[in-house]
From TrEMBL:
Belongs to the UDPGP type 2 family. This is UTP--glucose-1-phosphate uridylyltransferase. It holds the Pfam family NTP_transferase. It comes from Jannaschia seohaensis. The lineage of its organism: Bacteria, Pseudomonadati, Pseudomonadota, Alphaproteobacteria, Rhodobacterales. The keyword Nucleotide-binding does not apply.
C-alpha cells in the first residue's frame, strides 16, 4: 500500500449560477482575483504539493478552462513579436505542455453532484490515494494541499479532509466533523454531519475544499445512491468508508476565502490588494485600507 498522492482531481463542471451573468460566457473558475484566475491558484497549489497528474472534471460548455490551462504557442509568439517577452515567459511557466505534463480533461455531462464529479475521474486517476481540490475555496499561505500531503498517513486514517474552526452559529453552512481527539493539526473523527443546526453540531471543525481520499472512495461512490436533487454526495461516500479506512481532519495554516460567493470573492480581492503597492494606493485613496485592517 502506498500513501503517495499522485493525482489531484479538480471538479470544475459547475455552472457558477451565483455569479451570473458574469459566468454566462466565462467559467467561474476563470474569474480573476485581481489578475490571477481562481483555478490558477489551485493548480499552483497542486504543483507545489508534488502531484504528478492533474485531472480536470469539466463540462463541454466550459472549453475556456482547457484553453487557459494548456500552453498557447501562438499567443506567446504574438506577445514576443510585440516586445512582451517577459509576459510570454510568465504564461508559458504557468501553463501545461501537452507533451511534457500529465494533464487529463474528462467531462461531467450532467450536474449530478460533487461525488459524481470525483467518480468521473476514476479512469484517469493514478493508483493510490487521490487529492480533490475545489478551486472555489481559495486558501492563501503555505499551501494547504502540500501540508496535507506531508501529514497524510501519519495519523492512521486514509481519508483526510481540510478543516477550520468556525463559530458555533456558522456550523449550519458546512460539513462538520464528529471529532474524537486531536494531535497537533490532525483531528481524529468518527463521522461527519452535513450542515447541522448549531445546537446539534458535534464540533466546530468545518470541512473545506481540500481532500485526500483513499482510492476505495471510487468503489464507495459507484455504490452510492443519489440523494437530494438526484446528486451523489461525496460526504456520504466518505462516511461509508470510515470504518474501513478511518477519517481525520487537518487544520491548515493558511487563510481560506469562499470565492464561490460574491462576498468571499470580494474579501479575497481586498486581502490581496492590500498586499500590492499599486492596489494599496487605490485603497488608501478610497479610505478603505484602515477599514479593512479593522475588519480583519
Amino acid at each position: 500500500m502506498t500513501h503517495r498522492v499522485r493525482t489531484a482531481i479538480f471538479p470544475v463542471a459547475g455552472l457558477g449560477t451565483r455569479f451570473l451573468p458574469a459566468t454566462k460566457a466565462t467559467p467561474k473558475e476563470l474569474l480573476p482575483v485581481i489578475d490571477t484566475p481562481l483555478i490558477q491558484y489551485a493548480i499552483d497549489e497542486a504543483r507545489d504539493a508534488g502531484v504528478e497528474r492533474l485531472v480536470f472534471v469539466s463540462h463541454p460548455s466550459k472549453s475556456a478552462i482547457e484553453r487557459h490551462v494548456m500552453d498557447d504557442a501562438k499567443l506567446r509568439a504574438d506577445l514576443r513579436a510585440r516586445g512582451k517577452a517577459q509576459l510570454a515567459d510568465d504564461l508559458q511557466a504557468a501553463a501545461f505542455c501537452p507533451e511534457n505534463d500529465d494533464v487529463v480533461f474528462t467531462m461531467q455531462e450532467e450536474p449530478l453532484g460533487l461525488g459524481h464529479a470525483v467518480l468521473c475521474a476514476r479512469e484517469a486517476a493514478l493508483p493510490g490515494p487521490v487529492a480533490v481540490v475545489l478551486p472555489d475555496d481559495l486558501i492563501l499561505g503555505r499551501g494547504c494541499l502540500g501540508e496535507m500531503v506531508e501529514a497524510y498517513g501519519t495519523g492512521g486514517a486514509r481519508h483526510m479532509v481540510a478543516t477550520m474552526t468556525v463559530a458555533q452559529e456558522e456550523t449550519s453552512k458546512y460539513g462538520i466533523l464528529s471529532a474524537t481527539g486531536a494531535n497537533g493539526p490532525l483531528i481524529q473523527a468518527d463521522g461527519m454531519v452535513e450542515k447541522p443546526a448549531p445546537q446539534d453540531a458535534p464540533s466546530r471543525e468545518a470541512v473545506v475544499g481540500r481532500y485526500i481520499l483513499d482510492e476505495s472512495i471510487f468503489d464507495d461512490l459507484a455504490r452510492q445512491d443519489p440523494g437530494a436533487g438526484g446528486e451523489i454526495q461525496l460526504t456520504d461516500a466518505i462516511s461509508r468508508g470510515i470504518e474501513r479506512v478511518g477519517l481525520c481532519g487537518f487544520r491548515f495554516s493558511g487563510q481560506r476565502f469562499d470565492c464561490g460567493s460574491k462576498t468571499g470573492m470580494l474579501r479575497a480581492i481586498l486581502h490581496l490588494a492590500a498586499e500590492d503597492a499599486e492596489c494599496c494606493a487605490v485603497l488608501e485613496e478610497q479610505g478603505m485600507l484602515t477599514a479593512q485592517a479593522d475588519a480583519a
